[in-house]
Design a protein that fits this description.
Rossmann fold; two-stranded antiparallel sheet; alpha/beta; seven-stranded mixed beta sheet
Length: about 170
């Protein structure tokens, strides 16, 4: 895990002063390290019954699509409002300075689907909670929420209580 932690670069004052952005691009630049991250997720979820990876825009797409391919399961994107071309369902969630909305195609899932929600980072858990609401609105089951990075000091597990929560690296 030290190798993965060392592959996460801190960018101070991004996207605004006082924030330390956790940059995963050094992991992506190193094929062995990127593979290691995907292998950790694959080992954990290989026998979980997952049928679909639902990944959150945009860095979640990188890990989610690679994991879906490795597991041989479907991949669906969860995007910000107005970015998907077909009919959508939406969920709005609170931010420290307002609200945001994410969407999924209305035909993305059905009641037989067992979904892993995947993103690069869990901060407060708000986006992932909204993603879980979308999955459940379509009748599918959330089998877990998974992240490369967890900002434990922001307590995302509280907002995602009731879901199987997994993170590779905790800050």
């Amino acid at each position: 895990m030290k190798e993965i932690r060392d592959g996460i670069r801190d960018i101070p004052d991004f996207p605004k002063p006082g924030i330390i952005f956790k940059d995963i691009t050094p992991i992506l630049k190193d094929p062995k390290l990127f593979k290691k991250v995907i292998d950790i997720f694959a080992k954990r979820y290989r026998d979980s019954g997952v049928t679909t990876i639902a990944a959150i825009e945009s860095r979640g797409f990188i890990f989610g699509s690679a994991l879906a391919l490795k597991l041989g399961v479907a991949f669906i994107p969860i995007r910000k409002k107005g970015k998907l071309p077909y009919k959508t369902i939406s969920a709005t969630y609170g931010l420290e300075y307002g609200t945001d909305t994410i969407e999924m195609h209305e035909d993305a899932l059905n009641a037989e689907d067992k979904v892993l929600i995947l993103d690069d980072l869990a901060a407060t858990g708000g986006t992932s909670k909204a993603a879980a609401e979308l999955v459940e609105k379509l009748g599918a089951k959330v089998i877990g929420v998974a992240f490369v990075i967890e900002l434990a000091f922001l307590n995302p597990r509280k907002k995602l209580a009731g879901y199987d929560f997994f993170s590779i690296i905790e800050f």
